[in-house]
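User: Let's play a game. I give you a shape written as tokens, and you guess the letters that built it. Ready? Here's round one.
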């Protein structure tokens, strides 16, 4: 695994997920990653739509959910982005959110590549 993955994923989280496989759940890591990669693009689109429509409750809900799923896979930069978006939506600081939403796509691409490499 490349050193750059350490900056994208918390490898302790990945290790903990791998340890679950060793405890009798073979294929669990791959299944979790597959579900994350299939589900996240739709949820990202929901976040972008809510942001574009100025729906701060929708932004907050989407960011909160995405923050949790990214945290489960150790995608720390995405977790930080979603945490900031969630906070801004609560404070209704609408003007600051699109810039953060724009950072998500490239970071999600990096996370996808790192998760696939970690397989």
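Assistant: Ready! My guess for every position:
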């Amino acid at each position: 695994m490349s050193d750059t993955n350490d900056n994208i994923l918390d490898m302790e989280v990945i290790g903990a997920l791998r340890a679950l496989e060793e405890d009798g759940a073979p294929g669990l890591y791959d299944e979790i990653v597959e579900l994350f990669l299939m589900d996240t693009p739709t949820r990202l689109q929901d976040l972008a739509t809510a942001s574009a429509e100025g729906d701060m409750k929708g932004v907050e809900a989407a960011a909160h959910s995405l923050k949790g799923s990214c945290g489960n896979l150790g995608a720390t930069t995405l977790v930080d982005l979603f945490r900031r978006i969630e906070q801004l939506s609560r404070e209704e600081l609408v003007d600051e959110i699109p810039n953060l939403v724009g950072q998500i796509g490239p970071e999600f691409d990096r996370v996808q590549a790192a998760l696939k490499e970690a397989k």
